[in-house]
Records
---
Amino acid sequence: MNESLPLEKELAGIFKDKLPAFPEEIKELLVKIAPWLALIGAVLGGIGLLFALVGGGFVAVATVGTEAYGSPWGYWVGMLSLALYVVICLIAFTPLRNRQRRGWNLLYYFQLLSLVVNLITLNIIGLLIGGFLGFWILFQIREKYS
């Protein structure tokens, strides 16, 4: 590991060194299915984004300043983050399949983005549980990517 990502060293100290390690078979399984989960997530996310923009986008624009369908601001934060998730998952597919460190780095950025979005939208449960499980899994499989 030549360069570390933002907060990587600090998080590795917690999620790799202080928490129980996964069995080797589980790590291998996670590494094998990771690219396919990314691809499925990108496809489903893209479909969801398309439907949300076509169906819900007009409603959100029409209700700016009201709370009739939830916060329009929150809607657009969700749409932007979903678009970024789709792009990250698509870009990560090939490096993950080839077990390249770049694939793991993209998953790491995906997880950081998820934390930021959960914080912005005040999704505290998602922030805590998703952040904990996401980083624990990520740091358990980090050694499998070169």
---
Amino acid sequence: MRRKKGFTLVELLVVIGIIALLISILMPALSRVRDQANRVKCMSNLRGILQGIVMYSAENKQALPYTNWGGNYHKPDKATDPRGTAGWLYDNPDWPSFSPSTIDPAMSYLENGHVYRLLKNREIFRCPLHTERDASDGPSEAYTSYLMNGAVADFSGAFPYKTTKFKVMDVIMWETGESNLMNRLSVGPPFNDGASFPTEWLAERHGASGRDPVTGAVRGNGGATIGCIDGHTEWMSYKDSQFELDKPLRRPGKSRLWIAPGLDNGGAR
């Protein structure tokens, strides 16, 4: 009687070893492809937001929308107006009564913000790698992964400058970080209200290996999505962002991040 041919134990182990080797070779490549896809999607989202801002500016004599710095802005001549003025991100008339620990952001606030009213798309406000967090990380976390550069309004809630006050490569938005280390370092919540100082850092979602617990500096390679005044987006590495943050400290003047028209050195501090 002839015996059926089959794999011996040694042959099976060889096949398993080859499969394991192929997986070990392919996994880093697949990871890079996935990261690149998320990066492209993130940049596309911010580009959509910038398109909304460009549309708003075109309808308002080239003025940028309010920054939501401190929530809804109350004009001095309308101090008794309980509602204030909506910003790029949201319209939140109850802002003065909110604190980061008790805020319960309603989606209707986002839907009444200037950008959403023009584009009618919630998806563009969040990076695909954005993880859900809690209100202590800042009220805007419920809405967005991206914040406006408060420099466009000299770091105030007042009406921002016209786009003509800025250079094409000036950064007006970026993908903000999620690390609550900001709170522990007394910098403030990572998501704030709707705008931030440039020093309130870029996202560590893409390519980072955490942050230094003392300085907050990003560990590892990578970067984050930024948006410029003319409506285009870029990928800014952590190294390049630090260069732009430090630039006015090395030589008086502005940088791509410190762009406040009415402040010395673009508001660098």
---
Amino acid sequence: METQNLMNEYEKSNHSVGLSMWHFEWCTKYRYKMFKKEEYQKLAEACIRRAASLHKITIIEISVMPEHVHVVIRISLNISPAKALNILKGLSAKFFFEHHERARLRYPRGHLWSKGKFAASLGFVEADVVKNYVRNQEKHHLGNHTL
């Protein structure tokens, strides 16, 4: 990618120019395989996407596995990665329980996600590699565990 194209991808506002792109990963509480069924994987993904869109967090890539999630996101320079992660985890759990009330049998207090998390900042060079990794999660996690 040419330098000129990179400059076109930076976020520009009145007082800042830059890019904040992140790879996040988090697990379900107790690592329960809550998303073994495809319908629950799709519901979890939809809940995460909704939480992101409500807070202007751009999801570049997402993969919901049976007991954990990977996302590659882009956020405004006005929001911290910690805040973005809290928004994605907190709101997605709220939305998930609203649409799948029986999940409260496993998580009566409404804590879908564990406290643990992974976050790594990405630049343009790493973005394609990480997007590919997230896109191919099933291949990466056959018999392997993360976090």
